[in-house]
Design goal:
alpha+beta; BirA Bifunctional Protein, domain 2; Rossmann fold; 2 domains; 8-stranded mixed beta sheet; 5-stranded mixed beta sheet; 15 helices; 38% helix; cytoplasm
Length: 416
């Protein structure tokens, strides 16, 4: 019988990996909380229209990468490929558009049928924030600054560069879209199949194509900056001025786009060169038309998402878990006495490793393997005297401690 393996594009989060993931998620949650973003969670599967209508039917995510299935009730469902659509759906479903601004932080698994490679999996995890309600440039600055502070807390800010662009307002986009259609229509014979499909529905997405032939055409395409209204230019300047005031370095990247019509004004990515082709570690933008497109009232919004796997690979080493106390109980009576003792120690906030078998030598070898700080040795002789032997595993010193005082003694020893 063949040995079972994880599905291609998935991986097991073994304790060390899980510790790094937890460090990223908890650091992000802490920093986001300082900005007023409260944690929330949405289901990992939704009706397929939640994503088809919001991510875009012509996008690679929907057309090629989304996991879609029919359940036993005949409903067509999809595993979530990203987090924003679910948050906005929850906002509308729970009538939260009446109490804005809405500030959300999320963390959880996402699913896309992609070609697995470094930093890209079919089941992956994201953190993200959404700020829904404010239409002002200050909201964009707040969201970007929160992302920068999270990257800084993870030791990454000096290894990334913020790329930022403006997608303009509706008037700007309409004019630019027309210019793109005119330009690319004159070169249909050189466009990739995917870009031909996008030409009428989503021409801005051609600017983001990875096809070499498309890239050559994009190099000479009209620039968005030539079609911006004065209002759009003013908005973008307010955002960049705010980032400068916050001390966040950035690069204006005119080819940074978001193809769907509900995106507007600010688009941004924090990019690193340390991960090869998968250099974007945190990306987002303003989506003032999304809530309305999903059936809610016209409501502005801005947010970002970041891949936890990529951040975990880059982040500084997380703090080591607290060193434990090894409780070595030798003999049946000692093992029974160790059960309530271990629980009392754990209730006092001390990590306790309770060995299950083996002689003294093997138990001490395990204590050293797990890097325990102290050992408490309990046998028949110690029970008869009402004491336990306390051993400092770093210094080698050992001596008796009354059982009635052991919890307090251990608490004081771990504080030193």
């Amino acid at each position: 019988m063949a040995q079972l393996q994880p599905v291609r594009g998935t991986h097991d989060l073994l304790p060390e990996d899980a510790r790094r993931h937890r460090h990223v998620a908890e650091t992000a949650r802490l920093i986001a909380g300082r900005y007023g973003f409260e944690g929330m969670a949405t289901p990992i599967f939704e009706f397929v229209d939640v994503f088809a209508r919001t991510v875009g039917e012509t996008s690679d995510i929907v057309s090629k990468e989304m996991y879609v299935f029919t359940d036993r009730g005949g409903e067509t469902l999809a595993l979530r490929p990203e987090g924003t659509a679910g948050v906005v759906r929850a906002l509308i479903s729970n009538s939260l558009t009446q109490s804005l601004p809405f500030k959300a932080f999320y963390y959880g698994p996402m699913f896309r049928y992609e070609r697995p490679q470094k930093g890209r999996l079919r089941q992956f995890h994201q953190i993200g924030v959404e700020l829904i309600g404010p239409a002002t440039p200050l909201a964009d600055v707040e969201v970007i600054t929160a992302g920068a502070d999270i990257l800084e807390a993870l030791g990454l800010l000096d290894r990334v560069l913020l790329h930022i662009n403006t997608l303009g307002d509706a008037e700007s986009r309409t004019a630019y879209r027309a210019a793109l259609v005119e330009y690319f229509s004159a070169h249909k014979d050189r466009l990739s199949e995917d870009s031909l499909a996008r030409l009428e529905k989503n021409p801005l997405r051609i600017l983001d194509s990875k096809d070499e032939g498309d890239r050559a055409l994009v190099a000479n395409a009209p620039l968005f900056g030539d079609y911006l209204t004065e209002a759009a230019q003013t908005f973008f300047k307010a955002v960049t001025d705010g980032l400068t005031a916050a001390g966040i370095a950035f690069k204006h990247d005119p080819l940074l786009v978001r193809g769907l019509d509900y995106y507007c004004h600010t688009a941004f990515e924090f990019v690193t060169t340390d991960l090869g082709a998968q250099g974007t570690v945190l990306a987002g933008g303003r989506y003032d038309g999304l809530v309305e497109q999903m059936g809610g009232p016209a409501t502005p919004g801005v947010g970002w998402a970041a891949g936890v796997e990529r951040l975990a690979m880059l982040a500084t080493e997380p703090p080591a878990p607290p060193r434990a106390l090894a409780l070595i109980a030798l003999g049946e009576a000692a093992e029974q006495a160790a059960i309530p003792l271990a629980r009392s120690l754990r209730r006092a906030g001390i990590a306790v490793d309770l060995g299950y078998s083996g002689n003294m030598k093997k138990r001490l070898a395990r204590a050293n393997k797990i890097n325990a700080r102290f050992a408490v040795i309990l046998g028949d002789d110690e029970l008869a005297q009402g004491v336990a032997q306390w051993r400092d595993l770093d210094e080698g010193a050992q001596g008796p401690v009354p059982l009635s005082e052991l919890v307090g003694y251990a608490r004081a020893a771990f504080r030193e």
